[in-house]
Amino acid sequence: MRKIEIFDTTLRDWAQTAGVNMTPEVKIEIAKKIDELWIPMIEAWFAISSIWDQQAIRTISEEVSARVYSLSRLMEWDINVSHDVLSESSNRWIHTFIWTSPMHRNYKLHKTKAEILEDIDRYVSYARNKFNSSSDAIMFSPEDALRTENDFLFQTIETAIKAWANQINIPDTVWFSQPMEIWELMKDLVNSYHWADFSVHTHNDLWNAVANSLAAAYNWANIIQWTIPPAYWERAWNADLIQVLMNIIKRPDIYDFDLGNKLDMKKVSDLVMFISNSIWKRVSDNHPIIWSDVFKHSSWIHQDWTSKNKTTYEIISPEEIWYKIEQSFILTNQSWRSWLNNAIVVYFGVQLTSDTLNEVFTKFKEISSTNSGVIVTMDDIREILLDSWVNLKRNIYINDYSITIDTVHSKASIELTHDWEVVTALSNWVGPVDAIYNAIIDALGMSDLNLIDFNISALSSSPSSEAKVSIKVESDWRIYEEFWVDKDIVKASINAFVNCLDRVSGK
User: Fold this and answer.
1) Quick check: 480 and 396 in contact, CB under 8 A?
2) DSSP for 302-329?
3) What pLDDT is attached to residue 315?
4) Helix (H, G, I), strand (E, B) or coil at 367
5) Less packed terminus of the chain by CB within 10 Å, N or C?
6) Would you say the pTM of this structure is higher than 0.90?
7) Whole-angstrom Cα distance, residue 507 to residue 504?
8) How far apart are the C-alpha atoms of 252 and 403, rounded to whole Å?
């Protein structure tokens, strides 16, 4: 088993994402949570960027056990600032780089190959002298490495190693390379400079980031750089922690790697949720491995067999990712009777007789077949059940609500019946939906809820169109999803939310 170390660049690459901004306080909190995963290396961003970034890097280096890297151009000024920021840290690490491809040499730096080699020798040596403790490390990157001429790329790496860089990172900055190219390059590099530590930094422009990272690691790169979703990060994002990690977990016959302290996927999921809420940039519903749609099946063949044995179509169980997860059901005209019955049991907690199930299934088929592929909602199923005189137990009923809006705040009041007890609450908030949601939470005493997704979509382009409000709530490590359709967005929001909470209270 070969030792592989992880270099997390979430805090650096997120800052280069269009439309994302994160306070120093959030950066520090994310760094602490990354550290809890026992990831040994964290890149904390450019110290040169601002005094706020400098303070964040300094605090992170003081409060985590991981090695903290400050990113720096091969410039004396950048290196000095990185050193000063980390001067009080027991672990002072620097990641320094220079652009090496013809495009960057000619159009950005306006430097010859000889001048770039001279810069590498001068400033890597300068960084080594500045960061002179035996525990300090210098990571060097020839940026845009895979579009750099192969002979010149090797020259840059050899020059950096002779100047006492002890970690060499290969960034394929626009990641147009293929796994077999990475394979060959890493083999040649490790054979030529086996005393250095090599890492790869992959981007996903051609959807190869994970494959390229694994190919490099397989051929003796001993550091993998990755980011944590929902950080799509710059352009097409980087190698995804979850996808890289799950490949290693699921295929130990190929990837016989020792990652040190085993990463807890449930803690990773927790961190994903925290980042998503912090930067308001959610993970796609069909993101591989981590999110809810991965465990949804619409084909009747898939539905039938996963109801009998999930491993027929799921190589990863939801319990590997989340502490608990509620099974999601997609009901279409392809769905079979057994799948409908499973959905009714999970959502409504009732077991139908065979005759009643036949009746309900017939009505379900009538609805689902009116338009090929239409998805039947749980509200539709609820109406079918009530129409079939099925006694459904509910825990929460909306009695009354009101919302008033002034120039600054919204005031909301709610009256609910919960387990046959009438409860009320008032709330002041910035927006009307926030106000009524907080009133509902206060009335029910469900302060441990986490609203992880709220989405509004119009069902047509008509001004009088109905709106669909979709809600996703996390409670006690379980994910609950509901939606409601109404011309009144606030009403739809309330009903979708209460439906979620009704299921939470009945779990």
Assistant:
1) no
2) HHHHHHH-GGGT-SS-HHHHSSS-PPP-
3) 82
4) helix
5) N
6) no
7) 5
8) 56
